[in-house]
Amino acid sequence: MEVKEKWKIEDEKETEAEDSEQRDNIKRKGKKPFAIELSIAEAKLIKDKKNCAKLTEQVGELTSEAEVRLKTEEEIIRECEDDVMATFEDLQLKTFKKR
Fold this sequence. Notes:
With 99 residues, the protein is an all-alpha fold.
């Protein structure tokens, strides 16, 4: 959780710095305040889309990793079940032979 919070704080600081820089650049170009805010909103939207794409990719990777782990765990369970059944059958045979 700490990593996510740290990332969020760093991202907010970066966004604030970018916003300030964009305002300064736009003011130098002589745009009106509404145009400045609109330009900043557009820049934020582009950044959010990039972040969304990154997060979507990460979710896909995590999903793939989870599926692999699940398959591995299912295989381990099947192997254990097979071992248990084999041991049970061996015990049955030994018990039957003793009689």
